[in-house]
Amino acid sequence: MSFFTIRSGYDHVLLSAYLVPHLFEKGFQPQMEKSGNKVTQIRTANKICFRDVTKLLAPSTSLKKFGQLFKLEQCKAHFPFGMLNSIEILENEKLPTDLSLWKSDLASGGGEFGAKELAEAQELFDKAGCKNLGDYLKAYLVLDVEILLEASQLWRASLKKDVGLDFVESRKFTISSLAYEGSLKKLESNLRIGSFFPNNSQHYRLLRRGMRG
After folding, report:
1. Long-range CB contact pairs, 135-144, < 8 A, 24+
2. 152, 4 in Cβ contact below 8 A?
3. Phi and psi for 34 in degrees, rounded to 5?
4. For residue 42, what are the β-bridge partners?
5. Fewest C-beta in 10 Å: which of 6, 35, 50, 62?
6. What share of the chain is helix, strand, coil (3-state, %, to 5)?
7. Would you call 50 helix, strand, or coil by DSSP?
């Protein structure tokens, strides 16, 4: 069983700071795997794993682009991270109209923020029944989770249909490991009895070019 985050450099910092101590208290014996000073995975004794889904996506793929790829009805929302400098800010009863406050390094998805995007944010604020910025932050994060869940499940189904692979079932959670698994399946389908090499010369050359070590 695995759960995905979209930005390991940000989400996993929060998970390691707040979730890991809670898991220890509940007896789940969490273990963190790191690459340098970055957390790559959090695993529990009952085989629940928290992983970074971007390791399976093309470089620079944001959650917004991930959702758009599968034409989801939900769209990535906006949050004014530029004004979030204290906990008291979350008590503000209205969204800021100063567009500069909506631009921040934490804002994902890229693109310009203007009147159209501000109107979308206000629509989510009203639709979710938010009373303050704190309520809006919760709605913003819930929407993120919904997009990540639906896009991941649609992608799993698409991979299973097109290439016969499921990254959860095969437990391959990086582009390289998934590609290698697919290569082995293709290699197996091209083998003749008594032969240990692919019959397709182009596939053979591709494997040789991708060899490491």
Report:
1. 136/79, 136/95, 137/79, 137/90, 139/77, 140/77, 140/78, 140/79, 143/74, 143/76, 143/77, 144/6, 144/63, 144/76, 144/77
2. yes
3. -125, 155
4. 32, 50
5. 35
6. 50, 10, 40
7. strand
| pLDDT value of position 212 | 59
Contact by Cβ (8 Å): 113, 78: yes
Which range scores top for mean pLDDT: 5-19, 53-67, 69-83, 105-119? 69-83
In sequence order, the 6+-apart residues with CB closer than 8 A to the CB of 206 are: none
With both helix axes pointing from N to C terminus, report the angle between 201-209 and 175-190 in degrees, rounded to the nearest 10.
Answer: 150
pLDDT digits (tens, 9 = 90+) for 105-161: 665 545 578 899 999 999 999 999 999 999 999 999 999 999 999 998 998 898 888
Nearest to 42, CA basis, from 32, 53, 52, 54: 32
Residues 77 and 64: their CA atoms lie apart, in Å, by: 8
Closest CA relative to residue 9, chosen from 45, 43, 49, 54: 54
C-beta of residue 154 within 8 angstroms of C-beta of residue 70: yes
pTM attached to this predicted model: 0.72
Contact 168, 48 (CB under 8 A): no
Are the C-beta atoms of 140 and 96 separated by less than 8 Å? no
Q: Choose the weakest-confidence range: 5-9, 59-63, 129-133.
A: 5-9
